[in-house]
Design brief:
With 155 residues, the chain is mainly beta. It has one helix and ten strands; from the N terminus they run H-E-E-E-E-E-E-E-E-E-E. The chain has a single domain, classed as AOC barrel-like (Beta Barrel), CATH 2.40.350.10. The longest helix is centred in the N-terminal third of the chain and has 12 residues. The protein is elongated. It starts with a helix and ends with a strand. 23% of the residues are buried.
């Protein structure tokens, strides 16, 4: 019985508690994307955005303090985008997280919408899971924003 109790204590003692965060907010950065109109119905977009931070509702959101590049490529055929990309962020602890994204649609004013997924990373991000939606583009004043929603779980 004593050995059985020790095994239960070891298993229970090593269980990591996971914490889930609401990541709703706005990503801020500078975009250097290149748009190439091949024909009136076919456009190629080479995406590169350097994020300087995120503003959100939850100040404990770990994504609020990440910075770094997002890159990708999108083909827009007759107003419908197809494409993917990857973001490689670093947080204040110098730990890295990789997030992939996929374009799904475009709004009438040219904002791209899609989904994102956390792939993993280093440190606290190694077993991170989560995802959600995004709505990105430049507003009437030329300011780039990425409106993000979803959830992120860290172990």
């Amino acid at each position: 019985m004593r050995n059985g109790l020790a095994a239960v204590m070891i298993v229970t003692g090593t269980t990591a508690l996971a914490e889930t965060f609401d990541v709703a907010g706005i990503g801020l950065g500078e975009t250097q994307s290149v748009i190439r109109q091949v024909t009136p119905r076919l456009t190629l977009v080479d995406i590169h955005t350097e994020y300087s931070g995120f503003e959100g509702r939850d100040p404990g959101n770990p994504l609020a303090l990440v910075t770094g590049p997002c890159t990708g490529a999108v083909v827009i055929h007759s107003g419908s985008p197809t494409g993917t990309g990857v973001c490689h962020y670093t947080d204040l602890d110098s730990e890295e997280v990789v997030i992939t994204w996929q374009a799904r649609s475009m709004t009438a004013n040219g904002r791209m919408q899609g989904t994102w997924i956390v792939e993993g990373g280093t440190g606290k991000w190694q077993e991170a899971r989560g995802g959600g939606a995004f709505d990105s583009g430049v507003d009437g004043n030329g300011v780039y924003t990425n409106i993000v929603s979803g959830a992120l779980t860290l172990k």
